[in-house]
Amino acid sequence: MKHVYINPQTQVVIDQLGQRGLDEVSEHSIEEIRESASKLFAELGPANRDVYKDEYIFVPGPEGDIRCRMIVPREPTAPMPVLLYFIGGTFAHKTAYEFGGTPHVLATEANCIMIIPEHRLPPENRYPAAFDDCYAVYKWLLRHAGEINGDVRRIAVGGGSSAGNIAATVCQDAKADGIPQPVLQWLDVPLLDHMSETPSVQQMDYLVDRDSLRFGSDILFGDQEWALRASPLRAPDVSGLAPAYITTAELDPLVDEARAYAIRLRNAGVPTTYICYEGQIHGFSGMGGIIDEGLMMIYQAAGVLRYAFSKGR
After folding, report:
1. Tens digit of pLDDT for each residue in 197-240?
2. Is 26 a catalytic residue?
């Protein structure tokens, strides 16, 4: 699809997608996608920063311990807020070290502990394995955040793309189970409806397109029926959820469903901020080492997180 404006730095990334094996995602194997996407964000993300801790912790899960990357930007002098940040990329990226320096920047600027679960992956572990693991980590933090010098009253959830899907689902699961909501749900370029046929899904083809989205859904579900739980936009009732910060990109096939979810949340009385970045593509926020606006967006998100943490629950 042709468009009147593409951010010039972003155009450079688009021009290189073929060389990176990411121009036709649905035509590659999951192993090839994992390798190419990992290299993309490691190379295009901002530089790492000096942080107090960057190590693994282990959280009990439904099928054994879940390895979680923990980033602590400075030595805690009091309980710190916590951002539970999920791994995106077709639900299937291998490790929490595929973001380049973005997590260091985010944890430092938001002044929070960052927890990134390495959930069970499809297609090796189909739905709902990833969702159950991530929800288990959230429930663990509500009870045990103090063990990592975290504040149980100041926990936010977030993630981009398929991880935005998981973050939204965690909030809906928490509501269904009657447990506390996070102080914020940050949904970045989120996949919110596996069955979406919006104009943007049918028209946009920068980095991801309809075929690659359906490819990701097939990886997640296999031969199963596509579960309603994994399409938060289709939930019958979205009231009572955590305040939402939804960031998306004008040239993203998911932009229409992100906007639709923002509207549904607002109509249900959920405080919601929605920002669409013009001339940008899916995943640009992880490319802050080459796309200035991507890094700016991370700084803005960190500011929103600081505000949400200051209010608490």
Report:
1. 999 999 998 888 999 899 889 989 999 999 999 999 999 999 99
2. no
How many Cβ atoms are within 10 Å of 79's Cβ, its own excluded?
16
| pLDDT tens column, 85-124 | 999 877 666 677 778 899 999 999 999 999 999 999 998 8
The catalytic position among 104, 151, 161, 173 is: 161
Find out whether 228 and 167 touch, Cβ atoms under 8 Å.
Answer: no
Question: Is 200 known to be catalytic?
Answer: no
Strand (E) or helix (H) holding 72:
strand 64-72
Catalytic-labelled residue, pool 212, 252, 256, 285: 252
CB 134 within 8 A of CB 86: yes
Catalytic residue among 54, 256, 282, 285: 282
User: Are the beta carbons of 87 and 119 closer than 8 angstroms?
Assistant: yes
Query: What would the two tokens of residue 253 be?
Result: 């096939």
The dihedral through the CA atoms of 39, 44, 50, 53 has a sign that is negative
Q: What pTM did the predictor assign?
A: 0.95
The rounded distance, in Å, linking the Cα atoms of 243 and 142 is: 17
- Apex 208 CA angle, 188 and 128, nearest 5: 65
The length of the chain is: 313
Instruction: Tell me the domain boundaries of the chain.
Output: 8-311
CA–CA gap between residue 309 and residue 312 (Å, rounded) = 5
What CATH architecture does domain 8-311 belong to? 3-Layer(aba) Sandwich (3.40)
Tell which residue, 226, 205, 208, has the closest CA to residue 217: 226
- Is 161 assigned a catalytic role? yes
